[in-house]
Amino acid sequence: MNNYNHKQIENKWQKIWKESELYKTPDTIPSKKNWYALSMFPYPSGDLHIGHWFAFTPADAHARFKRLEGFNVMHPQGFDAFGLPAENAAIKNNINPKKWTFDNISNMQKQFDMMGNSYDWSRKLITCTPEYYKWNQKFFVEMYKKGLAYRKNGPVWWDPIDQTTLANEQVVDGKSERSGADVVKKLMPQWYFKITDYAEELLDMDNLEWPEKIKQMQRNWIGKSSGVTINFSIENSNEKISTFTTRIDTIYGVTFVVLAPEHPIIKTLSLSKNKYVKEYIARSQKMSEIDRTSTIREKTGVRTDVCCINPLTGEKIPVFVGDYVLASYGSGAVMGVPAHDERDFLFARKYDLPVKVVVSPDGSKNFQLSKAFTGNGIQVNSEEFNGLNNVEGKEKIAKLVEEKKFGKKTITYHLRDWLISRQRYWGTPIPMFYDENNEIIPVEEKYLPVILPEAKEFMPTGQSPLTLDEKFLYFDHPRYGKLRRETDTMDTFMDSSWYHLKFASPGILDSPFKKEKIDLWNPVDQYMGGAEHAVMHLLYARFFNKVLRDLGYLDFDEPYKRLFNQGVMLARHMKISKRNNPLNPQPLVEKYGTDSVRAYLMFLGPWDRGGDWSDSGINGIYRWLNRVWDMITVQYKEKNISQEQTKISIQTSNEITKNILSDMKNFKFNTTIASLMEYSNFLSKIKKEGSISNTNWNNSCKRLLIHLSPICPHITEEIWSILGNKKSIHLQKNPTFDDKLLEKDNLTLMVQINGKLRDQIQVEKNAPKEQIIDNAKKIKKIQQHLEGMKIIKSIYVPGRIINFVAKPE
RNA sequence: GCCGAGGUGGCGGAAUGGCAGACGCAGCGGGCUUAAAACCCGCCGCCAGUAAAAUGGCGUGUGGGUUCGAAUCCCACCCUCGGUACCA
Q1: Is the pLDDT of residue A266 over 80?
Q2: One domain, residues A242 and A353
């Protein structure tokens, strides 16, 4: 028999699978249920590195496993092809972004082939093609007509390196998530999607089988908080300052009110006539957003010339401007309660403002504070509410505020509307016209797609490069005459918000997708990808699903039924250079083969944990696959068939299958492989002895191969065909197990004294408790340890342990 | 600060109330070989003990607790990673 030649085998089978269209998925197969296995599609950056392998090959193994379980599995792949890197490459190397993107795609697709994944490439999609982005545009127009897309002049995050605007989510620590630049706020007209309309529904994730961690992150991001909006009237004015608070129970403790520097009332009341106020506001606007939002920074502010009135007490309260108050949250103004809010406490101390305790932990009025007391307690100094628990106080005071029309209960969210427009070239053109009065006219469907024209100039200027294209910019409309086009393009998260639908319905040109096909496959049964998309892609896709539902395209509420996040593959302590790139899997594939690389990535540890990449240890996997190859391809010879070994081998086989079926289901590839290694070690011992029949041997080998096939699809397919099987191993069914066969006649029980292991004992399956305990007591070693002791209790847990609790006599 | 995950041999990790360290890497000893690689066999937590064994003690970040019994459950703390942060 030949030696294991991974290179030849992998080439051979990849070619055969392609030619026979083994992984092409029909929409339905009678008697099979559909299963949609989706990996988050990649950005075509140029090369697939080991991180991509870590994301995609275990996902493929899981999809293959579902196939063995008897599902009709669709496992598609495509390219998230719009985005900045293409444009940056264009600027840097003077390459056409389209060419750059498509070159990368063809290169990456070759690398994808090397992985041996079971992709149905007939469903491939590339988001930068007009056939795809046309539907972005159609959806956009429909959303506009429903009031879900709107244009607003607003303060937006501006990335000075990428020269474009960013959504809230794309700003991390005051820096651009993409470029790393310090972002600044700019006032510009922008397009938004009204994701906030769906905030409440997005919070409902009870029916999602997602990691709790991701759900929690989304909940935090949406940031629901309920409280009361209460209005403070201003002395000698008809204006009111409305403030939002979650602690209406502390209303009697308000000793000042703080406005955000951007608060509109500052203008209305001409508060900046006061030169200190004017200077303060000017200074805070110059300050970078990172400095302003730094929590370590001292809270500062400036006193204005006006006072307002606490509607409940009638007290006169000074009004400040302070940059620790954010214009974009709540109502842009807060009531200052220094006794019960950390920030207000620091502010009050700095400006020597009174601190009035209204909630006290023990109910005493003269409770002394060294810092704010933010816990629950008893209302004091709160007029008619004194003596109440503040939780109750909160309810009662809120009721009073509503009755007296001082304000009303309010719910606010941290979530802001999704900023969708980008002043960049390589994206979906936003399908809108403007007439001479700057009135917005959506592009009619017959004029879609608005084709992204070829461009020559990509230098970021703050305006979309499309502005420079006169031919694109103006349109002679039969009804409206000469119209100017919108030149902004869409955020690429638009593309990934519905791509999973397109996979289910490929090749359709007259509509985004066919509903009958969508319903066959969606929602996605198993979505797999990195946790870095927890609050962006995954939230947008959920929002978009609900929008499409409300537009009548879909009937279901959520796009991804189950989600699994693989961990991050780090490459620390390693220099990445083009010549010697430790992240490039190609040399490993050359040396050990795809199957070894796949198995090694899955063997490293739990998939959701990730780890520091190192290839030490892959040789162990390679050696093992070689042993499996030799063991099965070299003829088995019966020698002395033993009933005992036959029984053990059947037990072992059943046990292994039971473990593997459960581990594979739960993405525990590492323990699956460990079980397979154990099984092959066991079989190789059997082979040396020749102690089971040929039939049993063959069945065991088949079992091993089928279990291994999702992880190592090539070697298993080759051995499978060497064994004479005509139909692909990837079209087989999982081996089964029988719980009855797992029961053993004799068990080994551990014997403990006071919880310390002292010896073990063989017992018969159905032996009575008393007899077992009695026998255990008689063991020599146990007797030795019990010398001078008295057994006060004997514990017997069937199938597990015996424990004697003993004391000195 | 807050939310979440985690801390186990030289390394990756296994065990989620009952044999700690499965499986593998590295290492050590031996076989095969003129030799090396490959391959095969054996050993491999720490300390004490022994000619070698036997054997005993200790041991899952730290300290306490629950339990006949804890890596696993509870409390407090320390550290690492991920997320988030003046959200009123």
Answers
A1: yes
A2: yes
Give me the DSSP letters along A286-335.
HS-HHHHH-TTSPP-EEEEEEEEE-TTT--EEEEEEETTS-TTSTTSEEE
pLDDT in tens, A312-358: 999 999 999 998 898 888 899 999 999 999 899 999 999 999 999 99
Q: Provide the domain count of chain A.
A: 5
pLDDT at A422 over 80: yes
CB–CB of A64/A705 below 8 Å?
no
CA of A705 to C1' of B24 (A): 20
Distance CA A761 to C1' B49 in A: 27
Q: Residue A337: give its domain's CATH number.
A: 3.90.740.10
| Residue partners of A29: CB distance under 8 A and separation at least 6 | A72
What is the CA A147 to C1' B49 distance in angstroms? 83
Residue A310 and residue A199 share a domain: no
Identity of residue A166: L
A177: tokens are 């998530």
Task: Give the nucleotide nearest to A622 (CA→C1').
Answer: B24
For A609-643, write each residue's pLDDT tens digit: 988 888 889 999 999 999 999 999 999 999 889 99
Give the nearest nucleotide to A806, CA to C1'.
Answer: B68
Distance A618 CA to B56 C1' (A): 40
Looking at the domain assignment, is residue A26 inside a domain? no
Q: Are residues A308 and A368 in the same domain?
A: yes
Q: Would you state the pLDDT for residue A289?
A: 62
- Cβ(A613)–Cβ(A571) below 8 Å: yes
Which positions on strand B lie below 7 Å from a protein C-beta?
3-5, 11-15, 18-20, 22-26, 38-41, 55-57, 68-70, 82-88
Kindly state whether residue A27 falls inside one of the protein's structural domains. Answer: no
Give the nucleotide at minimum CA-to-C1' distance from A294.
B86
Which domain does A72 fall in, by range? 32-130+496-570
Mean pLDDT over the full length of chain A: 90
Distance from CA(A374) to C1'(B8), angstroms, rounded: 40
